[in-house]
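Below is the data:
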Amino acid sequence: MCLITEYYSRGDLRKVIKELQQFQPEYRINIVWEISAQIILALNFMHSKGVLHRNIKPENIFIMKDGSVRLGDFSLTKDILEMDEPTTIEAQIYKAPEVQKDNEMDFGSDLYAIGVIVFEMLTGKNPFAAKSESEIIKRIENGQSGTLPDLVPSELKELIKSLMNIV
C-alpha cells in the first residue's frame, strides 16, 4: 500500500511546542488558542462521524505552512480493535485516568489528551511531571496536574480543566 499525504512544512506539534517557549507569553497564548480551536474542531467532526482517534499526542498533530492543523496517525496499518495499547510513559501521559485503569477508551479520552497538549503548549512541560514513571502514573490517576502560570487567562484554564475533567 502506498499512502500519499500533504507536506507538513512546520512539522509536528512537538516541534511547535518547543518553538512556542521562545515567544512572549501573550503571543504564545494567542497561538495556543488558535491551535487548540482547530484541534477541537477536527475532533468534533471526527466524533460526529463516530470516529475515535485513540492516539492523540503532539507527534500526531501536524502544522501546515499557513498555520492550519492536521490530525494524523489513524493507525491505518492495523485494525483499531487489534491495536496494542501504548506502553511507553510518553504515550501514557496522554491517556485519561480511567483509561490507565481499565483501558476503555471513548470520545472523552481524545478530549483529555487535548487538555494535556494545551497545558504543554502553554508551559513546555507535561502537567504530570515527576521524577519517576510510577510517580507520573500515580499523578495521572489522581488527577494531580501541575499549575499554570498566573498570566494564562481564566478561560484557557477552564478549557484545560474541562477537557481533563479536573474539578
Observations:
- The chain is about 45% helix and 5% strand.
- The domain at 13-71+86-164 is CATH 1.10.510.10 (Transferase(Phosphotransferase); domain 1).
- The chain has one domain: 13-71+86-164.
- The longest helix spans residues 25-48.
